[in-house]
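For reproducibility, we list the full input for the cytidine-5'-triphosphate complex.
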Amino acid sequence: MVQNKNVVLGITGGIAAYKACDIVSDLKKLNANVDVIMTKAATEFITPLTLQSISQNKVAVDMFQTLGNWEIGHISLAKKADLLVIAPATADIIGKLANGIADDLLSTTVMATKAPVLIAPAMNSNMYTNSIVQANIEKLKNNGFWFITPEIGRLACGDIGEGKLASVETIVNQITKLLTRAKDFSGRKILITAGPTQEAIDPVRFISNRSSGKMGYALAEAAVERGADVTLISGPVALTRPNGLDSFIPVESAIEMRQAVMDCFQEMEIIIMTAAVGDFKPKRKSAEKIKKNDSGLTIELEKTPDILAELGKLKGDRILVGFAAETQNLLEYAGEKLVQKNLDFIVANDLTQEGAGFGVSTNIVKIIDCSGNVEEFPLMSKLELGKIILDRIKGLLI
Ligand code: CTP
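The corresponding predicted structure, in tokenized form, follows.
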């Protein structure tokens, strides 16, 4: 899945530059975000406007042009990239990179990035087979750069030989492979609970809460992306089920959620309870719809099982993560839950802050671990937070 991945595509000045349009277009169809950097020479072959229209992002050409209010072009794109691709790549850019020359936006961005770099050369076959170009390619390969070998075919100059840009399909396939390769949770079994529970009053009414399930679904998506075998147990939500789950178990009530969790927790290595499990349920569910009368209605409630506390007792060497949503005394209350439920860490959010908690796609949290360390995070998307939670879990895995 390359969805929401950031590809920075560098286009250099060769006749094959027009094929970059198809690369961008295919990546957009896969829902990747594409930022294009063009060298000055590339703009002689196609216009930045074309690439801007297809990528739906501003195209960077000038080293000294700012992309946003404060961003420094080559640094911000270098940091943003999940993958940096140069297609087509001329002998010139290959030579620069192999020799540490950083004199335009593309070469400086490549030099500044920690992301993998994929290079698809395209040039005249005599240039491509030139021993200096070949030595440069070798040097870059030995420094972790990825290459896509050009094809043999009819070149723009009329020659037939090696140097034709690999097909768009080959390039996009290689991009997809590289982007989906980081599988640091490969084979890890993760159980995630999400959403609210619904506690029935009668056949048509229930008690529930404002949880949208977004945090749990985002976590599940992030975990699948990193290769985990994810079981998602979800209360009733209006979200699309993430792709690639090992198992999806829909439930309604806290009792059903507990049963689903207990049925599978033995085989799990990591359990993350994002669900907003109802703490109380009506003592009796009326078999018939309750009719209104003038004397009001009293519903007697009883406690639901605390699933996480139960897991805390059975934990063994599993990693157990809980959530706490509070409106006051955030650290104190969340810290108590961490201890009472025997968690490895707890993700605490202050519901009084705008952009945090239920319903929204963002969150503002503090992570408290069992040694009492508190890490504070700024406003971020739930997907970003999901990645951070997985990073913290990774630190605990043996
Ligand atoms: N949880 C659970 N079973 C419950 C209630 C909560 O497993 N019956 C889990 C939630 O999934 C969450 C954590 O426990 O990970 C929240 O702790 P909890 O003490 O239940 O928080 P609140 O419900 O907010 O409790 P309180 O109303 O006391 O603040």
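The chain has a mean pLDDT of 92. The radius of gyration is 27 Å. Both points were considered when choosing residues for closer inspection.
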